[in-house]
Automatic annotation (TrEMBL):
Compositional bias annotation for Acidic residues: 34-58
Any one GO MF annotation of this record: GTPase activity
One GO BP: SRP-dependent cotranslational protein targeting to membrane
Organism (species): Thiohalospira halophila DSM 15071
Annotated binding of GTP, by residue: 197-204, 279-283, 343-346
InterPro entries, per the entry: AAA+_ATPase, P-loop_NTPase, Signal_recog_particl_SRP54_hlx, SR_rcpt_FtsY, SRP/SRP_N, SRP54_GTPase_dom, SRP54_N_sf
Protein name according to UniProt: Signal recognition particle receptor FtsY
Family, per entry: Belongs to the GTP-binding SRP family. FtsY subfamily.
Keyword Cytoplasm attributed: yes
Keywords, comma-separated and alphabetical: Cell membrane, Cytoplasm, GTP-binding, Hydrolase, Membrane, Nucleotide-binding, Receptor
Domain AAA+ ATPase: 189-391
Function: Involved in targeting and insertion of nascent membrane proteins into the cytoplasmic membrane. Acts as a receptor for the complex formed by the signal recognition particle (SRP) and the ribosome-nascent chain (RNC). Interaction with SRP-RNC leads to the transfer of the RNC complex to the Sec translocase for insertion into the membrane, the hydrolysis of GTP by both Ffh and FtsY, and the dissociation of the SRP-FtsY complex into the individual components.
Length: 393
């Protein structure tokens, strides 16, 4: 029996990529060392003024110099505004993306330190930095080409403005892919999500977190355990079902996954469920026979509901870098994808792969990112929020 896991982690060889991609010939001068972060001491507390004892009944009151009233501080509304960014969920996101921020954003600041102009050497160093951070060849070329045009037109001349401009470029690159998964309110029959991916990406856990999310929104959910190959898969999904109060449709171990998918959709229709989420066995994108099995599951679902599955979501491990991009390409060729969930971004410096995914998989949305173990760490993907978390101090 063919193994269904074995996701090999690959990382592009930067030198090889640059050679075949035709990047600029490097000058002899090395890049500047990374500058240490400058310590910003907190402002000293304002000195408390001594209380003035003014006796209103005194016949000859002394004239005391009155203190100027302190400038009004920020109102509670002002303090609350942006609290999500500086703390709370945004702060948690920024903390969890620390390794990617270190490999990408902080390195860029060191590149421009002390530079007087934007020249070929600086742009070449920027290329290297982006590739090393797993931004990918296609996305890197697009960014560098646009920056080069801006420099040639004198629209961008100050090296210190380069990081801010790059931040805008990265946000614009991600924006088309950042499309939330919206469930229709007036659909006849349940919304069917088919979850695919290799073993070890957190696919089944992602399904459980999605079920928890939708239950919290007041939706009725049914789970289908169509991973009949891995012995613990159905049990793991059953645990999530019990935790979230969601029914799980199972079949015999080694049984037909198409039959389980069929039964799950039927159960969803009979119960009036809003959402049916179907787990499938982990498989490598190179295993043609197993990819055909996945296509069969899709055909079974399509016979039951028009346009179903309404979402085919690939779950990929962000820590595998460019190998995640390779998986996404292959899955998209065999089973057309509509969405991605990129997991395990909290433990890797390779989060730049999201830019590669957005650049190369046009039409496939990045729905969620995983930045931790809890249910709230599965976050709907927001392009501006993601880039802000990488660049904001």
């Amino acid at each position: 029996m063919m193994a269904r896991d074995g996701d090999a982690v690959g990382h592009p060889n930067c030198v090889t990529i640059r050679a075949m991609f035709g990047f600029r010939k490097r000058k002899g001068k090395g890049s500047d060392p990374e500058a240490p972060e400058e310590y910003q001491p907190e402002g000293a507390p304002e000195e408390a003024s001594e209380a003035e004892a003014a006796d209103e009944a005194a016949p000859e009151p002394k004239e005391e110099p009155t203190e100027e009233p302190a400038a009004p501080g920020p109102s509670p509304a002002d303090e609350d505004e942006g609290a999500e960014k500086k703390g709370g969920l945004f702060g948690r996101l920024r903390e969890r993306l620390a390794k990617t921020r270190s490999s990408l954003a902080e390195g860029l600041g060191a590149l421009v330190l002390g530079r007087k102009e934007i020249d070929d050497e600086l742009l070449e160093d920027l290329e290297t930095q982006l590739l090393t951070a797993d931004v990918g060849v296609t996305a890197t070329q697009r960014i560098i080409d646009d920056l080069t045009r801006r420099v040639s037109r004198k629209e961008l001349t100050d090296p210190q403005a380069l990081v801010g401009t790059l931040r805008e470029e990265l946000t614009a690159l991600l924006a088309p892919a950042a499309r939330p998964l919206t469930l229709p309110e007036d659909q006849e029959g349940p919304f069917v999500l088919l979850m695919v991916g290799v073993n070890g990406t957190g696919k089944t856990t992602t399904i459980g977190k999605l079920a928890q999310r939708y239950r919290a929104e007041g939706r009725e959910v049914v789970l289908g355990a169509a991973d009949t190959f891995r012995a613990a898969a159905a049990e793991q999904l059953q645990e999530w079902g019990e935790r979230t109060g969601v029914p799980v449709i199972r079949g015999p171990e080694g049984g037909d996954p198409g039959a389980v998918a069929h039964d799950a959709v039927e159960a969803g229709r009979a119960r009036g469920a809003d959402v049916v989420i179907i787990d499938t066995a982990g498989r490598l994108h190179t295993q043609d026979n197993l990819m055909e099995e996945l296509a069969k599951v899709r055909r079974v679902i399509a016979k039951q509901l028009p346009d179903a599955p309404h979402e085919t979501m690939l779950v990929i491990d962000g820590g595998t870098g460019q190998n995640a991009l390779s998986q996404a390409r292959q899955f998209n060729q065999s089973v057309p994808l509509t969405g991605l969930t990129v997991t395990k971004l909290d433990g890797t410096a390779r989060g730049g792969v999201l830019f590669a995914l957005a650049a190369e998989l046009e039409g496939v949305a990045i729905r969620f990112i995983g930045v931790g173990e809890s249910a709230e760490d599965l976050r709907p993907f927001d392009a501006a929020e993601f880039v802000d978390a990488l660049f904001e101090e």
